C-alpha cells in the first residue's frame, strides 16, 4: 500500500476509520518553522461534520504532535501527528461485511488484500483518513502564508446550484478568500449557500446524496515553479487531488472547455504591468507545467457520497451470489463542503514539495 507522497517533504499516512487512531508522519520539514497550533485545529474543525448536511459521527479530532516540534518550532526531525478515534460504531458493519457497497472500495480492497483488510467504515480507504491530511496541510498552508501565498477553495456548484465565480484580479480573489476561508460552508454567495444546503437536506430526506464541483485559487503564486515533464505543477497537484476519496475529475484553467475554443480564444496574451502578467488566465496560471505568476485555478469534481440509505443491488462476496443491500449507520448526504479543506491541504502539500524541489528545504524557513 502506497501511503507516502513527496520527494522533498514526505507525507506518510497511517490508521483506519475504526482503528484506535489515525495520523501522519511528515519528513523533510526544515527546522525553525513556527507553527500556530490553533490554526491546525481550526482547519480540522472545517472538516468535521455539522448539522443535518453531514454524518452524525462526531469525532473530537483533537491532534497530538508526538515528535518533531519543540518550544513552538519544528525541530527538523520527522514530525508525527496522532489523532485518536473516539466514536467508532464498528457493529454497524458486521451484518453487511460480505455485501459489497456500490461505488465503495469494498470489492476492490477484498480482491487486492484477499479479505485481510479492515472493512469497518472502509478502513484505510475511508474519508476519515483525510483528517491527518488536513493536519499536515495546515502546516504547509502556514509555510505558504509566510511567503505571502494564499490558497482558497469554494463550492462552485452543488447539484446544479452555482456559486458566484472567482474574480479576475488578485485583489478580488483575496477579498473572496477572506470570506471563504473563515466560513464552514465555503461559498461566496450566502444565497447560493442556502440553496445548496436545501438541496443537500432534501437528498438526505430521500435517503440519497449529492456531489458537486470545488474551485480552488492559489493567489500570489510566483513564476518558475514546476519540473516538466513528470514533476509539472499539474501532474503533482492532480496526483494528490485524485488521491482524495470521492474526487473523480480535476481540471486547470478552462480545462475541458478548451475543447470548444479557437486558439485565438484560448491563448492568454502577455502584458507588462508591475511585472509580466497575462491579460486573461485561461491556462490557470500554468504554462508548460511551470507556474507563470498568475493565480493557479483548479476545479475538482466530487462525486455524490456512495453511502446512501436506499436499497441497492450488490453481491455477497462470501456466497458469490447476487444480493440486495440497505446500509445503516451514520453517513454524509454530501461531502463537498467538508472536502474543500482537504483540497486546500493537498494543494498546499504539493506546492511546498514543488518549492522545495526548486529552492531546497531551506526555502521553508521564515
Distance between the termini: 35 Å
What's the rounded overall pLDDT mean?
A: 94
| Shape field | globular
Strand order of the largest sheet: 1-2-3-7-4
| Beta-strand residue percentage | 15-25%
Structural class: alpha+beta
User: Which residue ranges are poorly predicted, with pLDDT under 50 across at least 5 consecutive positions?
Assistant: none
Most strands sheet: 5 strands, antiparallel
Secondary-structure map:
Elements: E1 4-5, E2 10-15, E3 21-27, H1 37-47, E4 63-67, E5 69-70, E6 73-74, E7 79-84, H2 106-113, H3 130-146, E8 150-158, E9 161-162, H4 170-181, H5 190-205, E10 212-219, H6 233-242, E11 247-252, H7 263-266, E12 270-272, E13 276-278, E14 286-287, E15 290-291, E16 296-302, E17 312-316, E18 321-325, H8 336-359
Antiparallel strand pairs: 1-2, 2-3, 3-7, 4-7, 5-6, 8-9, 8-10, 10-16, 11-16, 12-13, 14-15, 17-18
Helix pairs in contact: 1-3, 1-8, 3-8, 6-8
